[in-house]
Write a structure and sequence with these properties.
Blueprint lengths: L5 H32 L5 H40 L62 H4 L3 H5 L12 H9 L14 H15 L4 H8 L15 H4 L3 H17 E10 L7 E6 L12 E7 L5 E9 L6 H4 L1 H4 L1 H15 L8 H9 L3 H6 L2 H19 L3 H8 L6 H6 L1
Helix pairs in contact: 1-2, 1-6, 2-6, 12-13
Amino acid sequence: MEDSTVRECKISFLQHEYIRYSKLIYGHMQHIEKLYRDSLIQPQQRLSALSILNHLIRYMNQDVYNAKLKELKIINQDDKKTDDSAEKIKLSDFDIDKNDNKSNNIHHMLPSNSDELDVQGENDSEDADDNKFEIDEKTDHKTDINILDKPICDVLGIGQFQYNPSMNIDTLLDICRIGKLGNIGNIMFDDFNKVAEKLIKVGNDVGFKSIYHALELLIGCSHQELIKDNTIDDSANNVDLDKLKEFRDMLSLLNESFIPTKFSCIDNYKQYPFCIECSINDNPPSELFLQSYATVSICFPNTEKKFQFDGYFSPDPIQCLIRTCQIGKPFLYRKKKQLQTYAEELKSGYINQKFSNIYIKNMSVGDILAYTKDQFISKLHADFDRYVKLSKMTFRNLMEEFTKDSHNNLKNMYT
């Protein structure tokens, strides 16, 4: 479709963002249910978070998608009255079928008799709850008709632009969001930003499904584009490309194995252009976490923000990630070999070599990622001393050791 108009792009972006945020809400719901099933959140926390998500869906259906699509159609009808010669798009081709609950390709929508999303059940029994979730909406409905029917390349002040269904819309939208294009307000609705703000507030209390799930809300769906070699000015940021690769590898590994349960953000953080750190938290909020609870800090390039996630590493009872890391996760394999080197450098002979090998072999992913050289050596010494002490105890003394603290029996037994 050559010389796509602002109207066409606006409809496609609206539907694209609707689908994207519906997936984010669904991911948040899955995360909340997982935490509840694992007894990591209380029933009241679950109900409160699900209530917010429920009202967000209603807001997206009624106040964003239906309202904006209706606005575009009304403008289109008025425009026909003033200029019948202007080429118009058939808006019914972009409508979502009222009875279709499946997500369709935004560029191949089937025509339907209804122009709006079906919000069945959201206008009757839940009317009494409308006051629980209010979003201040200030939208200018007097959109310039001339702008809507102009080619998008003219409005944005860029070269020839062809609307290609296979293009990376995510990247284009994120470029627009960070202000690279001054006229972006002419082609995008910003109402979904309010949905993102609410989801982030939920994330402050219960975390996110994964690290990528969080970054898609905090930075954008193309956050991985920001950490490619050709997107960072090496001379300006003094970037070490080897460290950048380590950043990407560790971020990918954390996304696969770490589940955030709390979130916070430090703004105007300019100490490092990018960094990622992981540290084991010895004081978890619940004994259910045992030694798997950790804090992950991420400084993302070009954001000047430091994101901090508290959470836990997913259980891996058969050590799948570690046992297959030589081929599947080279970064994790290098970290593990590095710890083995630290253990071999201990020349005192105090720690049994067999103990060191078994100890490293059974370390968790979180431990391998978190410990520095000094931390690992200190932990190895402490655990070896504890092992020697326990191995010399009688069964009775061992049981007394396990039950000496009535409030931390589990911790005494397993840590």
